[in-house]
Amino acid sequence: MSIIDEIISACGQEYVSVNEPMSRHTTFRVGGNADIFIRVSSKEQLISGLKVCRDSDYPVTILGNGSNVLVSDAGIRGAVFEFGREFADISVVKEDDMAFVTVLSGALLSNVGAYLMKEGIAGFHWASGIPGSVGGACYMNAGAYGGEMKDIIKSVEVLTSDLSVEVRDLESLDLSYRHSALMSEEAYVLSATFALPYGDSETIKAMTDELNQKRRDKQPLEFPSAGSTFKRPEGYFAGKLIEDSGLKGYRVGGASVSTKHCGFVVNDEHGTATDIYKLTEDVKKIVFEKFGVNLEREIRLLGEF
Ligand SMILES: Cc1cc2nc3c(=O)[nH]c(=O)nc-3n(C[C@H](O)[C@H](O)[C@H](O)COP(=O)(O)OP(=O)(O)OC[C@H]3O[C@@H](n4cnc5c(N)ncnc54)[C@H](O)[C@@H]3O)c2cc1C
Question: Measured from the CB, is residue 131 less than 6 Å from ligand 1?
């Protein structure tokens, strides 16, 4: 049996596709084919599929909602396991002062936010407008408008490289600005438990709506992007450095520096991953020449560049 057939048999035909275009699974809307693509539907299915890959040294890539990645035009060799809507249950344990909310990693932050709003559970409104999954947000320590995952995570359940399930407490995740300990090991987020206070649904809705309006006003949401392309360098704002370098609207092929928010690279004219990658390299070089500041990409590169 070929490795592809083995993975199909381990993961279930209906969850697997071969030569899947990654442009369908990334918010930049670019990226070539993954050799084999698996939609994660349960912990057991994931472990079976990963076991096949591990036994054959077959490469594995993990994807959430694809909102912080740039996938190469050549695609991704090996297997891509996507945590999405089939792995997205939410459960709540209500104690006197706090609610403990456990969410499977494929759940979208927007859906979690909407669920918590209805339940009268507060503290998540800042995350509702981030277009990522819970797993991706924990991995990236996503944050916005003064909140970050670090503030609300109680613990995270991970699958380690030897395919055992472990619970990691907040401290061991070593979360800091767009960083987690998970970046330096092969451990996949299965679920996260958040500790959140109670609140009034109407107030939570008003706060969520206000932040979403801010996003619409400030961000080029009409074009494919991956949000802020670069991390915030200490003491500066990436968008301002880019604008002050004269790069507003700077274009490579079908990709450009947004004229609405210079921190965003947008794929506004059907660009390729190569266009976007080259654009980010140019921006890094020009900003360094002008200001001596090294911009570091926040977006994660998947595949060969
Ligand atoms: C319009 C727009 C606005 C944005 N605004 C914000 C913002 O305000 N704040 C912010 O922080 N980010 C923002 N982002 C970026 C992005 O949404 C976040 O980084 C988000 O947390 C990424 O989640 P994801 O599920 O899409 O991850 P993906 O892009 O799929 O993956 C990102 C990384 O996480 C890894 N990963 C994904 N799931 C798992 C898992 N279960 N276990 C282990 N590793 C995993 C992937 O391998 C990859 O390295 C924005 C993006 C866009 C397009």
Answer: yes
How far away, in angstroms, is 67 Cα from ligand 1 center?
5
In order of start, what are the domains of the chain with their CATH numbers?
3-82 (3.30.43.10), 90-216 (3.30.465.10), 221-302 (3.90.78.10)
Are 42 and 114 contacting, i.e. CB atoms less than 8 angstroms apart? no
For residue 85, give Cα distances in angstroms to 28, 109, 202, 253.
Answer: 20, 11, 27, 34
Average pLDDT, integer, range 38-65: 97
Indicate if ligand 1 lies below 6 Å from the C-beta of 112: no
Question: How confident is the model over 271-278, as a mean pLDDT?
Answer: 98
Whole-number pLDDT of residue 241? 98
Q: What is the pLDDT of residues 163-206, one digit of tens each?
A: 999 999 999 999 999 999 999 998 999 999 999 999 999 999 99
Ligand 1 pocket, residue 263 CB under 6 Å:
no
Nearest atom of ligand 1 to the alpha carbon of 141: 11
Distance CA 272, CA 278 (A): 10
Query: Per-residue pLDDT tens for 241-271?
Result: 999 999 999 999 999 999 999 999 999 999 9
Q: How far apart are CA 25 and CA 303, in angstroms?
A: 14
Mutate to test the pocket of ligand 1, among 26, 130, 149, 231 (most ligand atoms within 8 A of CB): 130
Residue with token string 């049996």: 1
